[in-house]
Amino acid sequence: MFTIKAHNISKRYSYRLFSNISCSVSTGESVAIVGPNGSGKSTLLKILGNIVSPDSGRVEYFDKMESIPAHTVIHYAGIVAPYIQCYNHLTLTENIIFAFGSVTDDAIELLHRLDMYQHKDKVLHTYSTGMQQRCKIAMALLKKPKVLLLDEPGSNLDDSGRKILFELIKEIQPFTAIIMATNDSREAKLCHRSIVLDKGIGA
Ligand code: ADP
Ligand code: MG
């Protein structure tokens, strides 16, 4: 069981994004962060993933009910986000070997499901943006993450890519704590709960 627990998180940049947000997400639970552009969805996701610090409040992490240091969370996390990149000068096979040591049968199966197997030996910068998004999804899931941080995960995917993504999310949901920042109501509906941010509140 992995748990992320946020207490009274607040953040502002040029305006106040949100104040006093508290939430808890454990293995088997999923939370969508929704709200208009600029409302702070990505920022809240980054704070929950210990990528950005809150101005006030704190985030705690527990693995098997034991508190773990925030800086170790990256070891447990799979991240699909515009600001997370694979190695674009390597092939997908090389990315997988670099990250995980070998291309396992599980990896081959996942690449087939994502319709990327036939492209696995091409250099990533030659891929379309949708194919690059499929790579990010593959790399995040191959990590077998305890927590999955998804920022607009359906970006650039076609209908079939989105369908595969949704199926994969549903499959890993029972074993994973999922936090998803999204503008897409179909993505948000995959999650058990929502945190709604409203730009300008308290600004
Ligand atoms: P959303 O994901 O809901 O569209 P973001 O969390 O990306 O919103 O951004 C919310 C606001 O915070 C935006 O106005 C954005 O420009 C600002 N912002 C985000 N990150 C930074 C940063 N590192 N420095 C300054 N402003 C930022
Ligand atoms: Mg965003």
What does this molecule look like?
It is a single chain. The mean pLDDT is 96. The termini are far apart. The protein has a single domain, classed as P-loop containing nucleotide triphosphate hydrolases (Rossmann fold), CATH 3.40.50.300. It has helices spanning 41-48, 73-76, 92-100, 105-113, 129-142, 159-172, 185-188, and strands at residues 2-12, 16-26, 30-34, 56-63, 66-68, 77-80, 147-151, 177-181, 193-196. Helix content is 31%, strand content 28%. The protein has seven helices and nine strands. The protein has a five-stranded parallel β-sheet with strand order 6-7-8-3-9. It binds adenosine-5'-diphosphate (ADP) and magnesium ion (MG). Residues 41-42, 151, 181 line the site of magnesium ion. The site of magnesium ion (MG) has 4 residues, from α1.
Q: What features would you highlight for this structure?
A:
Rossmann fold, binds adenosine-5'-diphosphate, alpha/beta, 203 residues, 7 helices, 4-stranded antiparallel β-sheet, binds magnesium ion
User: Average pLDDT, to the nearest integer?
Assistant: 96
CATH architecture: 3-Layer(aba) Sandwich
Top-tier CATH class: Alpha Beta
Number of strands: 9
How are strands sequenced across the largest beta sheet? 6-7-8-3-9
CATH superfamily grouping? P-loop containing nucleotide triphosphate hydrolases
Radius of gyration: 17 Å
Question: How would you sum up the global shape?
Answer: globular
